[in-house]
Amino acid sequence: MRSPSWVRRLRILPRLSSTSMENCFRYAGADCGELSMVFSFHHLKVDFMGNDKWVLVPTDFGKLKDILFSWQEGMAAHNAWNAVFWCNHDQPRVVSRFGDEGAYWKESAKMLANIVHAMRGTPYVYQGEELGMTNANFTSLDQYRDVESLNHFQILRDKGMSEESVYNILKVHSRDNSRTPMQWDATAQGGFTTGEPWISVNPNTATITRWRTKTPSSPTIRPSSACATSTTCSLRGTSPPSPRATPPCWPISASTRARS
């Protein structure tokens, strides 16, 4: 039974951490009209040990590929709709997680952006992702604000883990990695505020920012977007819309707009 017309005009976006794909067919299928799309988190557990994220294990990129493909094909076969994304306020920065912070930072950030924008579904870009913002790499417990991170620091220490090892885990998995202020420019607080933000700005704000000087001697400024979001969005919009069409791109952290 279809939902009332006023409900169908709303965009209902559930976060389904561990539900089955079969349930999502019913939740976000074109014929049921219950939900606009589904956020599945299965692909964001490929660097866990089972369901435990407070460990350091190699990312299973083969599993990541299989999950992305299976959800793309399965949801399409049942005319159901995906939200496609890498990042949110609870996840580490994707370029640090699945890409590279060093020599291939720019290339890996663009690659990851293009994966999301090339898939079937509505793409979501979390604040700073379009710049290729990285994990915070905090070095002191007093820099962390996330209660989960603070609690697990003590839990892991109580289990006998060294302080250095716990910090290495926090640098990879802490939710605070995605919660540092937006890096608008190279000023002291990244242009986010002239005051004191609730959490420290990432130390690399001098090099990864929304605006950069064109040359050291020139006052001309230009947008700097590692992920070239506008390019991928424009490419995404070149094909004729389908009956289940999605808008080209929503490069914001909490978009509520969905397919037409």
Characterize the structure shown.
With 260 residues, the chain is mainly alpha-helical. The strands form three sheets. Strands 1-2 form a two-stranded parallel ribbon. α5 (105-118) runs parallel beside α8 and α6 (147-158) packs antiparallel against α7. The model is unreliable at 213-222 and 238-260 (pLDDT under 50). It has helices spanning 5-8, 21-28, 61-77, 94-97, 105-118, 147-158, 163-173, 229-236, and strands at residues 15-16, 39-40, 83-84, 122-123, 211-213, 221-223. β5 and β6 (221-223) form a beta hairpin. It has eight helices and six strands; from the N terminus they run αβαβαβααβααββα. It has a domain at 1-84.
Q: What is the topology, as strand order, of the major beta sheet?
A: 1-2
Largest sheet: 2 strands, parallel
Structural class category: mainly alpha
The coarse silhouette is globular
Task: Give the fraction of residues assigned to helices.
Answer: 25-40%
Mean of pLDDT: 82
Low-confidence stretches: 213-222, 238-260
User: Radius of gyration over alpha carbons?
Assistant: 20 Å
Beta content: 5-15%
Number of helices: 8
Succession of helices and strands = HEHEHEHHEHHEEH
Terminal-residue CA separation: 21 Å
Count the beta strands.
6
